[in-house]
Design brief:
α5 crosses α6. β1 and β2 form a beta hairpin. It contains 8 helices and 16 strands. With 304 residues, it is α+β, with helices and mostly antiparallel strands. Helix content is 33%, strand content 24%. Strands 8, 9, 12, 13, 14, 15 and 16 form a 7-stranded antiparallel β-sheet that branches. A 5-stranded antiparallel β-sheet has the order 1-2-3-7-6. Strands 4-5 form a two-stranded antiparallel sheet. The N and C termini lie close together (7 Å).
Length: 304
């Protein structure tokens, strides 16, 4: 893997470009996902890219997919660039660009919900609890404090928003949309994946506070986990040795970026909308190191 990738342009049909990834069609059964180094905060994509971010998302997902395949089947065929190129020879000239940041996957019809599991109360869940004592409209015990552990973890689905924030919804809404059997399978798989990932990460000094999974159905009707899994973009990773209930926690993600932008907003120097402000090099570097540190801690190896 070399350089920084802001946007890929491949000799394949581009199906969609989202905040971080491009999704290409290889054939009717196969997709190629490419993770760029773009970074967003407050739903705005920054001008500057964060080195190694796309590689962390891809390689950490590949690590988890392989580790958790006995818990739930997944969509990845390979994340090895040489195998990708052997299957799709048209990509050979861009081998180095794709190294470490591309996944060849099975095609699936996406389930229209984010399957969120919360092991600790934080973020939008904490905000809702403060307002109404509920989580996704469901009553919660009184007296919880920010970042406290939820035992057992809670399945807290959300709508999938192309723009703006996802909306927390009740389990009954998922049942009404996809049927009870599928909804219960989604809940069971999400909790099992989270608990397996949480237990492994705990041994590496990381608390996975919450995470979101995406699922899809193959042409053969098989339910599989898709997209990315247990990465700093889809999860809250907290260092175990700095955990303290009753406050927000330091995290292994784009916290340096969010902190910088929050300070600009507080000073009235940015309104929180596009176009974004320019980022100082030290903020970009600190954010990159957070991602690499998360990868290093979880896998026990340095990023390739």
């Amino acid at each position: 893997m070399t350089g920084v990738l802001v946007q890929s342009r491949l000799r394949l049909l581009l199906l969609r470009r989202v905040k971080v990834r491009e999704v290409y069609e290889v054939d009717e059964a196969t997709l190629l996902l490419v993770a760029s180094d773009r970074v967003s905060a407050f739903d705005v994509v920054m001008r500057e890219a964060v080195p190694h971010k796309g590689a962390v998302l891809t390689q950490l997902s590949a690590f988890w997919f392989a580790r958790l395949k006995s818990v739930m089947p997944h969509h990845v065929l390979t994340a090895d660039v040489e195998e990708i190129v052997s299957r799709v020879p048209a990509l050979a000239p861009q081998r180095d660009e794709l190294r470490g940041r591309a996944m060849l996957t099975r095609r699936a019809t996406t389930v229209p919900f984010e399957c969120v599991v919360r092991g600790y109360i934080s973020g939008s869940a904490w905000a809702e609890y403060q307002r109404s004592g509920t989580l996704a409209g469901e009553p919660m015990p009184q007296g919880l404090v920010e970042s406290v552990q939820l035992d057992p973890p809670i399945f807290s689905p959300a709508t999938k928003a192309e723009q703006g924030h996802d909306e927390n919804v009740t389990f009954d809404r998922v049942v009404n949309a996809v049927g009870r059997l599928t909804a219960e399978r989604l809940r069971g798989a999400s909790l099992a994946l989270y608990e397996a990932g949480r237990d492994y990460a705990a041994k590496r000094g990381i608390i996975i506070a919450d995470t979101k999974f995406e699922f899809g159905t193959t042409a053969q009707g098989e339910l599989i986990v898709i997209d990315e899994i247990l990465t700093p973009d889809s999860s809250r990773f907290w260092p175990t040795d700095r955990y303290q209930p009753g406050r927000s926690q330091p995290s292994f993600d784009k916290q340096p970026l969010r902190d910088y932008l929050a300070d600009l907003k507080k000073q009235g120097k940015w309104n929180g909308e596009a176009p974004p402000p320019s980022l100082p090099p030290e903020v970009v570097t600190a954010t990159s190191e957070r991602y690499r540190d998360a990868y290093r801690r979880i896998t026990g190896t340095d990023l390739e």
